[in-house]
Write a structure and sequence with these properties.
Layout: E1 2-10, E2 22-36, H1 41-49, H2 59-62, E3 64-77, E4 82-100, H3 108-145, H4 157-241, H5 247-297
Helix pairs in contact: 3-4, 4-5
């Protein structure tokens, strides 16, 4: 977010030649920081909001670019006329950026998200710096090629001419700042919408995976119950007759043992499928968590 302040001063020197003035431009950028607290996105943004840097949320409220333009004039004046000979422009810009007070207290994921956001804020504010400097450079070019209108050469006309040019350029620059903020806001809304769509897609996949997992768990439970039933029947026969089973019972035990083996193989197969599905589910769940984290930092 940028705000422009204007300061004009005049000095008068006797110079000649009725040409457009010589313009000198000097620029200076200074950074300052404020502390941010919190170990989650919500806490961090609440801390940023308390700074009151801007009325809008997100990047526009996380940093601030302020500029002040001072002008110094050299003119030739008489009682009835004024000619602008030289203009000195000095643009001083102060960029306010966030700095986490305790980055060592952040977990790895939060620190990574914070550092990425911190970089975005810096890029955002330095775009405002570029807009400011574009404006003063355009002002420099305008004053370098224009002269005070001959119909307006009363005393003080030079000062008024420069002040008017400065004010007109300031309005142009302010519109550029506003257009940049609007473009950024649209980009953030589009990024949020895209992330929400991705989360919806992941949720649909998770729902399907849960259904498959529940069916596999039900099948595995049924096989285990059947396996236990046959194993219990075998144990009952052995308990009744010992290991010297009569031929009919021996045949029954042999058949049941074959069924138990088949059931055990099927249980192993189902358990392997269940493990693969659970791994896929957990991976998608982790992906959803990452998307939610990105969404919480997209402001």
């Amino acid at each position: 977010m940028a705000a422009a302040g204007l300061l004009a001063t005049s000095s008068f020197e006797a110079l000649a030649a009725p040409t457009a003035p010589t313009v000198h431009l000097e620029t200076d950028v200074r950074e300052q920081y404020y502390d941010v607290y919190g170990t989650s996105a919500d806490a961090v943004f609440a801390s940023i909001q308390r700074q009151g840097l801007g009325g809008k949320a997100g990047l526009a409220a996380s940093g601030l670019t302020r500029s002040e333009l001072s002008t110094s004039l050299s003119t030739i004046t008489t009682d009835t006329s004024c000619r602008l000979v030289e203009v000195r422009l000095r643009a001083e810009v102060v960029v306010t950026l966030p700095k986490h007070a305790s980055p060592g207290h952040l977990d790895e994921d939060t620190r990574r998200q914070w550092e990425a956001y911190e970089t975005l804020v810096e890029f955002h504010e330095y775009r405002h710096v570029e807009i400011e400097f574009q404006g003063v450079q355009e002002l420099e070019a305008r004053l370098s090629r224009e002269t005070v209108p001959s119909a307006d050469t009363s005393a003080g006309a030079c000062q008024a001419f420069v002040e008017r040019a400065v004010e007109e350029q300031a309005r142009v620059t302010q519109r550029r700042h506003e257009a940049f903020h609007e473009k950024e806001s649209v980009a953030v809304r589009e990024a949020q919408t895209a992330l929400l769509r991705e989360i919806d897609d992941v949720d649909a996949t998770l729902s399907h995976e849960r259904d498959v997992i529940e069916r596999l768990e039900a099948d595995l439970a049924a096989h285990r119950a059947e396996h236990a039933e046959y194993a219990h029947a075998v144990d009952d026969l052995i308990a009744r007759y010992g290991h010297e089973l009569p031929p009919p019972e021996f045949a029954r035990v042999e058949e049941m043992n074959r069924v138990i083996e088949v059931l055990a193989e099927e249980m192993n197969r189902l358990a392997a499928r269940l493990n693969r599905r659970a791994a896929r589910y957990n991976a998608r769940l982790a992906e959803r968590g990452d998307l939610e984290a990105r969404l919480s930092w997209t402001r």
